[in-house]
Structure prediction request, 236 residues.
Amino acid sequence: MKIDVISLFPDFFTSGLQSGLLGKALANGIAAVNLVNPRDFALDKHHRVDDIPYGGGVGMVLKPEPIFAAVNSLPRLPSSQVILLTPQGSPLTQNTLQDLATHYQQLILICGHYEGVDERVRYLADREISLGDFILTCGEIPALALINGVVRLLPGTVGKVASLKAESFEDGLLDYPQYTRPAVFQNWEVPEILRSGNHQLIAQWRRDEQIKRTQKRRPDLWEKWVKEKSSELEES
Prediction:
């Protein structure tokens, strides 16, 4: 997969793209990230990319010309998506990451900054994505999160593919509790069933814990999961 990032601060990605599984995946060619600075496409000698908003207001707004020029300069693969990272976008979910990782060869991410982008930049985007109902200083943070989430789903990134199937949100439920050695730590003991060697009972315990944890921590997810399972039963 090719991922192009339109960013005023490409240095922001230096550490994140070189660390952990993401760094290994990029080094192995599973995906390629191309950082593009819209300042290189500014029309004036000062490489200005922002201006005051029409109608007045606090802060500066990113101009449309450099962003359009940066996006239009990119070679496009047959299946590509242009994504604007903005608080006004749809919340980023695991289903979104699965869709992007499965159906697209190229992602073009536009990182906003300051008070946002000129409204006309939205015409470039196929979709708008947000990390949630809060404000960040820049679009680079959600862009890096999206890159991480997508690349880890690509074949070859994670050694044990089965581990991707038993995570929070993959089946609509939160993940079950995980333990490792020592068996007892500060009077907290690993559940005996996990040390029993009975894989059938362990699987059932984990499923029960997923259900209990989702009910308690994310009743919204639990309600959605119950509705989806009820619909599946009716259709079958």
Observations:
- The chain has two domains: 2-151, 166-235.
- The mean pLDDT is 93.
- The chain is about 35% helix and 15% strand.
